[in-house]
Structures are given as structure tokens and as C-alpha cells.
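Entry for 1-deoxynojirimycin complex. Fields follow.
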Amino acid sequence: MFSKYLPQAEKIMSDMTLNEKIGQLNQITITPYTDKMDELRELIKNGGVGSIILASSATAGNDPQGHVNIELYKDLQKIAVEQSRKGIPMIYGRDVIHGHRTVYPIPLASAASFNERLVEKCYKNIAAEALNDSIRWTFSPMLDLCHDPRWGRIAEGPGEDPLLGSRMATACVKGFQGDDLKADTSIVACAKHYLGYGASESGRDYFRTEISDGTLYNYIIPAFRAAVDAGVATVMSSFNDINGTPVTGGKKYLTDILRGKLNFDGFVVSDWGAVEQLEHAGFAEDRRDCAKKAIHAGLDLNMCDKCYIENLGDLVKSCEVKAAEIDTAVSRILCVKLAMGLFENPYCKRTEYDESAHLADAKLLADESMVLLKNNGVLPLKKDTDILLAGPFAEDRRTLLGTWTLDGDAEKTQNFKEALSERANGRFEYSAALESGANSDVIVLALGESYTKTGENHSVSDISLEDSQIELIKKARAKGRRVVGVFFCGRPLALENVEEYFDAILYAWHSGSKTAASAADILFGDVVPSGKTPVTFPRKPTHIPIYYNVTSSGRPCNSYYGEGPFYSYLDGDSSPLYPFGYGLSYTAFEYGKSECDCAEISLEELKNGKKVQLSVTVSNVGDFDGKETVQLYIKDVVASVIRPLRELKDYKKIFLKKGESKRIDFCLGYGDLGFYGEDGEYLLEKGKFEVFIGGNCLCGDPVELVVK
Ligand code: NOJ
């Protein structure tokens, strides 16, 4: 895809000096040059900068960042294009993660929408806004699947499932890049953090990982494979090591798997400082050795730590690095620059966009991302209900936007108190700590966690609700009114200890600019909730890790699916509080019996492309029109390697009017039933499969299928 530009790239490279080539592999941040801009201009003029990251610190997700300075970037780009000998434009990148000026739900929340078409549309909007600020490259999507919600970065990824992660990956890449990178509406995407970063042990950020190749290929790689298949132009190497090899210095990961098995032909950028960190990790002797190991591994662009520009020249002279290795990296970067039309149009591609249309899409996605976890009938509220609102997040604006909001404006963001009071026709009172409050019908509590508890370098050791919030919940319950909890969060919290005090729980996440409006609309029934959990909600923090696609043991003890007779833990129920794929609606969906068009199919037929057809009739038997995510899971009953108890293989988000029924069709083929072996090769073994169709991963009554 990008290698088709190789002849052009080689032509450009044919008279480049070694230093100019190494300059292309150097990405800088402007901050260190703030007081010495002449030095920066000189560096660019000498061809020493291939790319600029528009961030002023290494952990931009939670540090305040200045807005982009379009005039300055134009000025610097002019030097690269008009004054450097080769005139190669620089590529500007910024962390435009889940929104730019308009902020969409954090990626974990948008995965809960199970609506990739809407996600794609929103990410197209994000591209338009980024382009308007001269940003041509974003470090998104983040595709790290995660089993440990203590990790602050779980907020940035698609949750725990490879299929959902893959669909979100495709949607984000297509949204950002469109069909043609040269188009006026496209920006370059970056699949990160490749690879295994989400498995950081105990949820500590930047920590070590131990990952078997089977887990890598079946669980962690699929979302990256989907991003590559969707044409992602860049990939970011992660900070972590896998089994002792840092990914940024790991040829197995950056070359053998990424290029050899996934056929990626864009370029790889390191994470910020990840090259110099090879020394800190004890994998390289010094910065020179860091550069050597990273280029040998297949790392093309060096983000911010200058190891390449300082050392690669010398390493080539001493023959420790081959000139051809440099050429390969440079050509990959030039191919992407050519593919995106940077040479023809090196400055910004400013596009007009309609802010209100973007906000409307942000609202739709927030509507679909929120998950109704509990409802004993109190919701939806009647408009004339007397409401008493309390809780620490009723007036917070910034938290609703979530981590990695560099350009969204918290001041312009409506808070939950405003949104709720605006819609309420009954008496509305607000008392943050429930100090006052007349006889309301319902107490609504705005709970959760601050955005500062999520994101990079912001992990927590305990995913319980804070004590002060637990006290508030008990206080609300003691008042004898019905209690509704609205949770603004960046991760699943462990809510078993408070769940009983609520009549209803709406998990609103940090859902961006329109969080408050969506949550309020859902409470009043103007929007019927349709989000489903993209990650398992544990009962207690000590149940981590707990995830749905777990394998069984010989002594069934997992308890996720009610297996017995052995207990995971003696001290309480060890099943999830809310399983993967779970979420309530105001209406009710009834599933008919699942049907399969055949009980047996041969391996040969599957290999030749034949598919098994399955169907189920879903009926809306409640009182509202609503959306349901119909999910299909398989279980490979006996295999040479124990397979998960359930694996999501397809889903369809459907809309049914009240009283309406629809037959929903699925098909399963060769690519759905097999798995990857330790060598990364795909295999499908003969034997029995069970297929489950329903509204979450616990759905029962499987259909049997035999592969002969
Ligand atoms: C470090 C983070 O890990 C990464 O996600 C981000 O894109 C870079 N910094 C650049 O800000």
C-alpha cells in the first residue's frame, strides 16, 4: 500500500547525504527550543528534522498543553520546504485521541456503543477539526486490550475483547484516514501501543509483561492486524518489554511479526523516549547502543530522545549499522509522506466544518456509549419528578471530557447539574453533600472518578469507590427515597459494596462534550440506553483480573459462567458483577431459539469459503423503541490448546420498534472458528463447537456445530 511509493522515495533518497537521511528519522518537540528558536531553524534547514510532535511534555494526556500555533508551524515548515537542500516537508503529529475541539467519549466508552459506523463518523469529524489546526497525523487509535482496570490507560483503549477491539480499530483508522490519505479530509492514524502494553503487570503503568505467543496472537495482535488491514500508515512501539525484550528493541515484534506476519508497510514511531529507555531498562549499554538496538529491531522514527540523530552516523561509519538499514527506515517515512500528499501540500489542509453537526454526533455517540447497569423500574424518570441532586461530579466540567483532552474546552462543556435541571419540570434541588433537601421523589447522585485518576501514568491500586462517596450513597439511601447513581468514570469500578443501595445505576463514563446532556436525556427517557459493557465489571477490586474469554480448567472453578463445584474464592461470589457485553434498556428484548443451517460442515468446505448460517429472532416486547446489540459467541469444545469458554465472533446492533420482531442472520466461516498457534499460524481443528447468541456473554442454550 505505501510501498507503491518506493520508486519515488528512492529517487528522493538517491542524492541524500547520510545526515539528511538520519534527519528524517528524528522527531522533535518544540519545547526545548523555545528560547533558542534560531537553533531549531538551523536544524530544520540542515535537514535534521523529519517530524515534529505538537506536545510540550512526555505525558501529554494529563498535563496541560498549549494550543497549536498554526503560524509557527507554517513558518517552520517553510524552512524545511524552501530552505533545506532536499525540501522534504516535516510531518506534524499531535495526540488527537478521542476528539479535538469537540470531544467524543473516551475510547473505552465508545467501544461500549458497539456501533462502529457511528465511531467512524465521529473520527472523521475529529480529522476535520485536527486538519483545521494544521495537524496531519494523530497518535490514535490506542488498541491495547486490558484485563486490569487499575491501569489508568484502560480508558484509552477498546476494553477486553479482540473482536470489539478490531472493529473499533478499523472504524478509527477509516474515520481518520478515509479512503485516500491525500483527500482534504484525511489525517494519518497511528495504531498504538504496539505491543502488549495493556498487559502491564498489576496495572502499573510502563511495567513489565509476560505474554505467551498464543496470547499475543489470539488476544493482543488482532486489533493491530485489523488496523493494518484497514491501511493504518503508522504504528507506535510501546514502552513495555515482553518476556524481557523491550518491544522498541525487539526485532521479533517490530519486524518479524509486524512486517512478516501482519504485512505492515508504513512506518514505526517509538513512544516518547522509548529508545533511550532501552538503557534504563538494562537492555542497552548507552544511548549509542540504544540507537543500534532500535534500528536493528525495525524502529523507524525516533520520538524526542535524539538517540538516532546523535548516534546513527557514527554507527554507520563503524559498520555496526548498515547504511541499508537507514535507507529502509527513511524510505518508509518518505512513502507515508508521499502517500499523504505532503510534498504537494506541505502546509495545512484547512477544511470548513460545522461545529454543531460535530456536537450532534458527539451526543449520539455519548447516548449509545452509556450503560444502564441496574434499574428496578425507577428509570426513566417522569419529567415532573421532584429531584434532589448530589455528589462530587454534579458541577465538574473537565472530568466529563476525560483524559487525553488537549484541545477541548472544559469551560464550554455543560455540567450534569445544568443538563439535569434544564430538563426537570418538577422541583429541582442541588446539595452537593446532601446537607439540605426537601421531600424529593428521587435522589440522583453524580459519582465516579476524576479524569486525573485515569490515563497515562495515572493508575490506581484500588478500583473501589472513594469512602466519601460510599458515605454519601448510604446517606441518600437512609433518606428513604429512590436513589439513582450516575457514574462518570474512565474505568469499570468495583461496585458490589454499593450496588444494593441503588434503584438504578447509569454508567455514563467520561463521555466527552455531551456527557451531561446524554446522561440527563437517558434519565428522563428521551434517549433509551443501549450501551453494553466492553469490559467485565468485577465485584471487588481483589477479583482482578477477571475477563469473559477465559479458558476453563479441569476442575471448573472460574465462576464466570457459574461453573462449579470448585470455588475461586471462599469469601463471596466470584462471578462478575456485570459481565462483558451486558447492558439494560428501558424496553425488553426477547430472543427466540437460535438456529443453524447445518449441524455439520467439513473442514475442506470451510477452507473453500463455505460458511455456516445462523439466525435468531429478536423481539422488542417492552414499551419503548430501542437498540439491542445481538452478540454471537463460540466455544471450541475440544482443541489441542484449551480454548476460551466463550469468544465473541460477531455482533449486530439493531433497532426495533416496540412490538417489532426481526430475524437476525450471522455466518461463521473458516476465519471465525480457528485460532493462532504459538508460531502465529492460523489453524482450525476438527471437532465440536458451541454457538451462543444473545444479549451478553452469559447467554445460554447453545447450538451445536461439528467441523468434520
Ligand atoms: C506517551 C504516550 O504513551 C503515547 O500514547 C503518546 O502518544 C505519546 N506520549 C506522545 O504524546
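NOTE: The chain has three domains: 3-340, 371-530, 587-707.
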